[in-house]
Amino acid sequence: MQFVPIVWEWAEFALRWLHVITAIAWIGSSFYFIALDLGLRPSADRDHGVGGEEWQVHGGGFYFIQKYMVAPARMPEDLIWFKWESYSTWLTGFALMAVVYYMGAELYLVDPNVLEMPAWVAILVSMGSLAFGWIAYDLICKSKFGEDNTRLMLLLYAILVVMAWGYTQVFTGRAAFLHLGAFTATVMSANVFFIIIPNQKIVVKDLRAGRTPDPKYGKIAKQRSTHNNYLTLPVLFMMLSNHYPLAFASDYNWIIAALVFLMGVTIRHFFNTMHARKGMLWWTWGLTVALFLAVMWLSTFGIYGQRDGGEEAALGPEAQRFAAAAGFEEVHDIVVTNCSMCHAKEPLWEGMASPPKGVMLETTQEVAVHARDIWLQAGVTHAMPPAGSYMMLDDETRALIRDWYAAGIEG
C-alpha cells in the first residue's frame, strides 16, 4: 500500500515537469509573435498585401519575416499552426490540479475555517468556476461593450479582482491563488481553442475557395492574443505562489492578487512599447517596484490570523485514521520536537518569516492532516529536517514514522 503514494508522488512530479515544459513553449511562442507583430517595419511590397517585415539574426543565421495584413494571395504549401503549445499547457495543468488538489482535496483544497463543505462539492465549485470564467469573458468580448478595448480591459480586471476575493472565501489560501491562475489560464487557452484558431481556419478556407478573407477575423484574434499577452505574467505568479505562504496566507491575499495583475500590465507595457520602437518607458518599472513593495507590506499583516482553527477544527476521515493509528503519539512528539521550529505560525528559525509552504506542525490536528507529507519528507526520504539544521533524525526514528503511516493506511 505504501508503494501507491510513491507512484502518485512521481506522477505529480512528471505532470509538473510536463506542465512547465509546455508552458515554456506556449509563452515563448506567444511573446515572440507579439514582439514580432509590434516590431515589423513598413514593407516595400505593400501593394501585394504585405503589412510589415523584419530582418532577424539568431543562431548564426539571418531570417527575413513578412506579415500579410489579411492573408497572402494564395494558400502556402506548408503552414505551421501554433496551437498545441496552448492546449498541452492547459491539459497538463488541469491534470496536475486534479492530482494535487482534487485527489488531495481534504488537505489542499478545503479549509473548514474558511468554508466547510464536502470534497466533491469543492471540486464541482472548482470546475464550475473555470467554465464560468470563459463563458462570461467570451460573452463580454462579443458584446457591444467589448468593442472598446480600454473599457473592456477595465471590466475584465474588475472581474479578476472579484474572483480573487471570491476564491479566498471558498478555498484554502494556496488553492485560491492556484485557482485564480487556472481561471485566467483557462480563458487564455480557450481564446486559442475557440477563437484564434477557428478564425484562422476560416481565413484558410476562404483562401482555398478563392475568396477574399474578411479582415474582421484577424482583428478579433489579435484582440484575444493581446489579452493573453497581458495575463501571462500574473498566471506565472499564481502558479509559483503555492511555494510562498507570504503571498497566499495573508488576510489580504486577494488584494495581493489584484496588485499582481497590475504588475503584469506594467511589465508587459514596457516590453510591448519597446518592441514597437516607441521608446523605453522606465517609469513602468518604478511603478512595478512600488506595487511589489505594496505586496510585501500587505503580506506581513494577518498571516493565518483569523483562519487558525487550531485544535477545534474537525478532522476529515483520512486524518482521523492517522490520528488513531498506532504510534501517533510518539510520532507527534518527534514532529513537534524536530519540525515545529520552522513549521509554526511564528517560526523560530532565524530569517524565516513564515512556515515553509504554509505547513504548520504544532498541534495533533496538524500532524494528522499532514501525515502523508511527514511520511514522504521524513520517513521515506531524508528531505526533512534540512541537512543544515541540527535537528537530525536517525534511521530508527524514521522507521517509526514509516510504521505509523503504514498503520494509518491499513486502518
UniProtKB/TrEMBL annotation:
Domain Urate oxidase N-terminal: start-end pairs: 6-298
Keywords from the UniProt entry: Membrane, Transmembrane, Transmembrane helix
Transmembrane residue ranges: 17-36, 87-105, 117-140, 152-170, 176-197, 229-246, 252-271, 283-304
The UniProt record lists the keyword Membrane: yes
Coiled coil region boundaries: none
One MF term in the entry's GO annotations: electron transfer activity
Keyword Transmembrane belongs to the record: yes
Pfam families hit by this protein: Urate_ox_N
Protein name: Urate oxidase N-terminal domain-containing protein
Lineage: Bacteria, Pseudomonadati, Pseudomonadota, Alphaproteobacteria, Rhodobacterales
Domain of life: Bacteria
